[in-house]
TrEMBL record:
Belongs to the short-chain dehydrogenases/reductases (SDR) family. It comes from Mycobacterium angelicum. SUPFAM superfamilies: NAD(P)-binding Rossmann-fold domains (SSF51735). This is Short-chain dehydrogenase. PANTHER family: OXIDOREDUCTASE, SHORT-CHAIN DEHYDROGENASE/REDUCTASE FAMILY (AFU_ORTHOLOGUE AFUA_5G02870) (PTHR43639), SHORT-CHAIN DEHYDROGENASE_REDUCTASE FAMILY PROTEIN (PTHR43639:SF1). PROSITE patterns: ADH_SHORT (PS00061). It holds the Pfam family adh_short_C2. GO terms for molecular function: oxidoreductase activity. Keywords: Oxidoreductase. Residues 13-199 form the Ketoreductase domain.
Length: 254
């Protein structure tokens, strides 16, 4: 294990994770701390962020900061970045993970408010955070940004069109940011397929009656813990020659 430990080592790195309080983000936050990182857990519900931060500190001995933020609100993001740099002095890895896709029954019932909320959270927020953190990473001479996208951006279902479009924008943005921030800073897309988290419950994936998962090569949905290997790869120096890429951790979508 010694060799792998070195490759994925995050000792004394600082990892900022939006949506780190639940689901995939929570797993990635624990994993980063277990590899030695101090972490920032940022989401709307402060109680959840504090609870997860306390658990991480107790289990790993690493520092964990909770921060309340709505990632879809541009004007709240400077505060998150400033608070992180005030506390830790740097960010080594930014994981733009917070995301959501509200359900709608038909396209004409998609309101402008819903459309904007989806784009704001899944695309606009990650852009602003990447801009704020990425430039500081360049000045510091190192860094990795991981944008959590969705296979919906490649295979957009009829029920997730605004979300799929926002995530497709995120894929494109990732490649552009990799050019903007190279060679010091790497930027990659971590593309998730179906995982059994709160958002997938809202989508009905946990009680899927149509056996949609049967079409995946692995014929099942993912456990949230199964995102960790891919996330650590992109977050750490294990991926030192990987940038502007899309890594699919999706069970093998058809
Ligand atoms: N699970 C899947 O099947 C799946 C598939 C493809 C892609 N993804 C992507 O993977 C990422 C994580 O999804 P998940 O399944 O882990 O979702 P989840 O279980 O619903 O967790 C979402 C996290 O994001 C936070 N969040 C939601 N809206 C936010 C906002 N406006 N501002 C700040 N934080 C916000 C939530 O905390 P608060 O409620 O406290 O804000 C929570 O910590 C998302 O980008 C999602 O699009 C997931």
């Amino acid at each position: 294990m010694g060799y792998a430990d070195d490759v994925f080592d995050l000792t004394d790195r600082v990892v900022l994770i939006t949506g780190g309080s639940r689901g995939l983000g929570r797993e990635m936050a624990f994993a980063a701390a277990r590899c030695g990182a101090d972490v920032v857990i940022a989401s709307r519900n402060m109680d959840n962020c504090v609870a997860v931060a306390k658990e991480i500190q107790a289990q790993t001995g690493r520092a964990a900061m909770a921060y309340q933020v709505h990632v879809g609100r541009w004007d709240q993001l400077d505060g998150l970045v400033d608070a992180t740099y005030d506390r830790f002095g740097k960010v080594d890895t930014l994981i733009n993970n917070a995301g959501m896709s509200p359900l709608y029954d038909k396209l004409s019932n998609v309101t402008e408010k819903l459309f904007d909320a989806v784009v704001n959270l899944n695309l606009k927020g990650p852009f602003r955070l990447s801009a704020l953190v990425g430039e500081r990473m360049v000045a510091a001479g190192r860094g990795s940004i991981v944008n959590v996208s969705s296979t919906g951006s490649l295979r957009p279902g009829a029920d997730i069109i605004p979300y799929a479009a926002a995530k497709a924008g995120l894929n494109a943005m990732t490649e552009g940011l990799a050019r903007a921030f190279g060679p010091m800073v790497r930027v990659n897309t971590l593309m998730a397929g179906p995982y059994l988290t709160d958002v997938s419950k809202a989508w009905g994936l946990d009680q899927d009656k149509t056996n949609r998962f049967g079409q995946l090569s692995l014929q099942r949905a993912g456990d949230p813990r199964e995102i960790v290997g891919a996330a650590l790869f992109l977050a750490s120096d294990a991926s030192s020659f990987t940038t502007g890429s899309i890594l699919r951790a999706d069970g093998g979508i058809p």
